[in-house]
Amino acid sequence: MEQDRSVVVVGLGYVGLPLALGFVEAGLRVTGVDASPRRVDEVNRGSSPIEDISDERLATAVAGGFRAIAPDAAAVRAADAVFVCVPTPVTATRDPDLGPVLSAAELVQSGLRAGHLVVLQSTTFPGTTTGPFRAVLERDTELRAGADFDLAFAPERVNPGDPASSGKRVPRLVGGSTPGATARAAALLRNINDVVVELSSPDAAEMAKLLENVFRNINIAFVNQLALLCERMGLDVWEVIDAAATKPFGFMRFTPGPGVGGHCIPVDPYYLAWRAREFDFTDRFIELAADVNVGMPRHVVDLVAEALNDRARSLRGARVGVLGVAFKPDVADAREAPAAHVLAGLARRGADVRYHDPHIARFRDAAGVERGGSALDELLAWAEVVVIVTPHRAIDWDAVYDRAGLIVDTVNASHGRSPRPRQVLRLGAGWSA
Ligand code: SAJ
């Protein structure tokens, strides 16, 4: 089997663009495809839309001939292999929305030919690749997966904001619809990953990826629930977690917070729960974890009310400053950010709400209200209570603890500081002594 040497990557987001550049740097001929003209333009100008990809790295690839284009059947036809790296969101009722995946499949189908390798990377429920995705590829054509073209699923493993998490060192999974497809996709991926684990089917690879992310979601929910219990018991959940984390085996540290954001961890479990129901299987773990995590922003609003109450102030009419609205520290991504529900919840209860986030200039909350960010000095001078939601490193924390008279700390950011008595109310731990 000769080596695949040319690749089309459909979807140039935080998964597709690193994948494309990896193949470019491995010497393959790569064309990036994206439905957004703005994204195509940014990439071709060497202006990286992805935080973990520097402009220099992208510009080097573009100088070497890498190009982004609009969806184009001829480009698909000309390549040896096609990777689909588009979002897999959920609908308002939290059902899987395969819209982006199936429209990418339409593009691939329009350029599909015998001998192609087609690899889906988007995190999705078991049965997507060999089910609806394959059905679109094979529509209106005599071509069949296995007989005429190779089909596989290879989930991404990227931890946004942690460049060390991507690149050659991260093992990759791949499962093909035939052993030959698995081997062929694995050989291609070994251009960019030192370790590629070959699985028995695309379904196994789809399920393994969901296990990875549902594992995180359930464990985060568990420590969130423990935080609520520790508040009632007068314990410090952060001390308890630090203590348990001294166990050098059989334990993995997760921490409570204002909720679970991003477009993976809060979303992927719904793909598994939905698919399980087709097999008359109710995954109560997933449903419960979702309830707990979705309930955390409301609990943060209650903590702000409790903190103000300590000062004989009501939430209604209070000036509340939120620190950090991105979905996690040191990223500029606000998708599914818990802060959206914290700000909307505070405003719904009559508070006057502003925020500061060094990475996010404008932010739309869960009620659709859009605000511009305030400068930190301005926020600290204005707010009568400050809520720490996303502890970006770039925030001047000394200024926060010096100048904020009342702080609700949802992420134990005040750990190691000596706040004044009843200056800080921590989620899962109560008042600073
Ligand atoms: N969070 C907690 N407590 C924790 C860990 C995370 O509250 O102990 C929160 C974070 O603040 C954030 C959310 O959960 O709001 C998700 O954080 P995350 O880092 O687990 O998820 P992502 O979406 O940034 O990236 C994850 C990857 N993260 C890690 O492996 C650490 C990985 O699970 C996947 O490769 C990736 O999603 C993906 O694309 O599936």
Please give the structural blueprint:
Blueprint: E1 6-10, H1 16-25, E2 29-33, H2 37-44, H3 55-63, E3 67-69, H4 73-78, E4 81-84, H5 99-110, E5 117-120, H6 129-138, E6 150-153, E7 172-176, H7 179-189, E8 196-199, H8 202-233, H9 237-244, H10 268-277, H11 284-309, E9 319-323, H12 338-348, E10 352-356, E11 362-364, E12 370-372, H13 376-382, E13 385-388, H14 397-403, E14 407-409, E15 424-426, E16 430-431
Parallel strand pairs: 1-2, 1-4, 2-3, 4-5, 5-6, 7-8, 9-10, 9-13, 13-14, 14-15
Antiparallel strand pairs: 6-7, 11-12, 15-16
Helix pairs in contact: 5-6, 8-10, 8-11, 10-11, 11-12
Description of the structure:
The structure is a single chain. The chain is an alpha/beta fold and 433 residues long. It contains 14 helices and 16 strands. An eight-stranded mixed β-sheet has the order 3-2-1-4-5-6-7-8, with helices on both faces. Strand 13, helix 14 and strand 14 form a beta-alpha-beta unit. Helix 5 packs parallel to helix 6, helix 8 packs across helix 10 and helix 11 packs across helix 12. The protein is elongated. The model has no long low-confidence stretch (mean pLDDT 96). It binds ligand SAJ. The site of ligand SAJ has 20 residues, from helix 8.
